[in-house]
Amino acid sequence: MTKYLAIVSLIFISQRAFSQSKSFTVKHISEPIIADGILDEPIWKVAEGATEFWEYFPIDSIQARQQSNIKMVYDDVYLYVGIKINTAGKNYRIQSLKRDFRAGNSDNITLLFDTFNDSNNAFIFGSNPYGVRREGLLSGGGRGNGAFNMSWDAKWVGDSKIYDNYYTSEFKIPLTSFKFKEGETKWRFNSYRFDTQSNETSTWVNIPQNQTIFDLGYMGTMIFEKPLGKSRTPLAIIPYINTISQKDFETNDKINNIKFGGDAKIAIGNSMNLDITVNPDFSQVEVDDQVTNLTRFEVSLPEKRQFFIDNSDLFSSFGGRRDANPFFSRRIGIAKDTADNSIENKIIGGLRLSGKLNKNLRLGFMNLQTEEDIANEIPSNNNAMLALQQRVFSRSNIGLFLINRESIKNYDFLSKEDRYNRVIGIDYNMVSADNTWSGKYYIHKSFEPNTQGKDLSIGASLQYNSKNYNIFTDWVSIGDNFTSDLGFIRREDIVKGVLGMERIFWPNKGKIQMHSFTIFPEFIWSPTLDYINTDYNLTASWSATYNNQARVNAQITKSYTFLMNDFDPTNTDEATAIPGNIGYHYNSIDLQFRSDRRKLFAYILNTTVGEFFNGERYSFGTTMTMRFQPKVFLSLIANYDKISLPTPHPSADIWLISPKIDITFSKSIFWSTLVQYSNQRDNLGFNSRLQWRFAPLSDLFIVYNDNYFVNSFEPKNRSINLKLTYWLNI
Asked: How far is CA 300 from CA 102, 274, 329, 472, in A?
């Protein structure tokens, strides 16, 4: 099947050069500009830039009704950006004054810089009418929401100024924030803008609505008046000091401690980064969102730790994100104790080297050492990965990787089979120049002591994406002995096949902007059980987006699951689990509605009704947000699942309630408090974080954590951290 899909893709894919004719010249200047948001410097009157934006929403075939004008100039150190954005008034929507805001529900403009002209990766810089800034990285050509990584940080300045029928923004971005080839004369560029007052989304280069608004296949060109020189090699030292006081009420252990450590960022040339960390501490990182899990499998949660962010796609994009991802950075620094609970496993130190060796070849190397924990039978491990990615054709690439997890010494509690785990693999990521065709083909092999055969992970996928049709197929085979200790593998011993087909309609009038019908059959077979069909889901759905940005989705699913082992979806203590070695047929209906997210009060409602294995399930969930602009943002996530199973199997009412309050006292002082109640996890958690950004990318944090048992309200553990970090450029 992999061979046939590869042949089909090579027949149909058009690797023709796809470009748009839009371009402008970036003038070189000798006098610096103050980025105060007021475009009063004479250079802005003559500078060239991006004009004549196109509408993307609600339709994609006309010029934007509210136009934007982006001008750029540069000197030997900085890129300067001056922006004028026309609006219908001053009734702007923003989430808060906090940096790295979410773009889709507020007024803002975002700039995309493809500095290596490869249509695969870009730097993101943006701002809103209040001068709040955001920056991030975009990978994978901008295909899908997983391409975004807003945890990346860069040192730059900017501000905005509001007028009667427009606002202006001004950026001053160090060229060292970008990576680019020395002597480069042009970058690919695009910009997109959200305008809540006119209910309009626009882009500089016209992008079809069947593509994402940040698709890197659709970009213009910014041409530098003189070639970019070799940037200086900055060295950033980021030390921290963290005072900790915590207590474990279950064991009555108390800890009062002071930790020291830090990171170093070294630029190697114009296109490579070396990140070094010693005794890293992630106490200030936002706490994970708890989720209700009614499946038999582990849930994947996003990486939020800054050390793992830069060029993270080089390491994490191999294999299949859902079924067979050989590298999942959250495995490093987390381990299982003797009771199979996930606990922190201290990282002693490590390094990451990543970036471009030349225009077409990227390199990533990571090596981190974790600390031993004899009491919890956790060995000290060396965790390493080497990745290479070579661009081929216009937007495709071939990737190679080697992963190694190995214990540095022998332990009595460590079996011979667990002393090391290695995985090698090759991926071909295929994307046509205009993103109509895309696909992925890979083969990975794992190595462990005393394990031979059935250790391959193979996958092939192909997608056709046009204005009216979206067709997708994906095939995965994971051997019974394939293991990646540093990966996310939901299950082994499977052959999985998916075929999805969507028909999209674009009405010329009425309240509906677009709607579509989708069928999505999914089948899983077990090779070791003579390829019996162990699972299938047959899904049919209808979805619609309204002109006011509200959305509705209705879905019906027919499912079959052959349980290999007994299973208790309620996670009830001492319950009689659903018996294994039996097949179960069950059907369900899902409904979801999302309101107009531009409103100060917005919400999402979803419900599921139907059968569940040998019983029934009713679920209801909601996400609600309320903005008191510009300083307060409230949100509430609430999910209720009622599982009714026949006697003697357990039934349960499962609740997950998570309110959060974000207060931004100013652009430099933030306070957020998150409460998470989950009776499935038997945990009521409080996380409160006060942050003062006293200097660029330098912070003082006070973080308070408190956790209780749900039924007894007895405390589990409690901690408070006072952490100081400082970003020093040398």
From this structure: 21, 27, 11, 23
Residues 552-602: tens digit of each pLDDT: 999 999 999 999 999 998 887 777 899 999 999 999 999 999 999 999 999
Using left for φ > 0, alpha for ψ between -120 and 50, and beta otherwise, residue 61 falls in alpha
The token pair that represents 273 in the structure block: 């980064």
Q: What is the 3-state secondary structure (H, E, C) of 228-253?
A: CCCCCCCEEEEEEEEEEEEEECCCCE
Which pLDDT band holds residue 143 (cuts at 50, 70, 90)?
confident
Mind giving me the DSSP string for 160-202? EEE-SSEEEEEEEEEGGGS---TT--EEEEEEEEEETTTTEEE
Residue-by-residue DSSP string for 332-366:
TTEEE-TTS-EEE--EEEEEEEEEESSSSEEEEEE
Quote the pLDDT of residue 233: 62
Check: pTM over 0.85? Answer yes or no.
yes
2 pLDDT higher than 80 = no
Q: 438-489, pLDDT tens digit by residue?
A: 999 999 999 999 888 899 999 999 999 999 999 999 999 999 999 999 999 9
Closest CA to 484 of 536, 555, 442, 421: 421
Q: Which two tokens stand for residue 248?
A: 């474990």
Q: Report the chain's C-alpha Rg in angstroms.
A: 26
How many angstroms separate the CA atoms of 105 and 108, rounded?
Answer: 9
What are residue 523's DSSP bridge partners?
Answer: 497, 536
Per-position DSSP letters for 397-425, written without gaps between them: EEEEEEEEEEESS--TTS-GGGSEEEEEE
From CA 553, how far away is CA 286, in angstroms rounded? Answer: 31
499-535 burial, b at 16+ Cβ within 10 Å, e below that, comes to ebebebebeeeeeebbbbebebebbbbbbeeeeeebb
pLDDT exceeds cutoff 60 at 1: no
Kindly report whether the peptide bond that precedes residue 507 is cis, defined as omega within 30 degrees of 0.
no
Task: Give whole-number Cα distances, 322 to 190, 299, 471, 486, 491, in Å.
Answer: 30, 10, 19, 15, 10
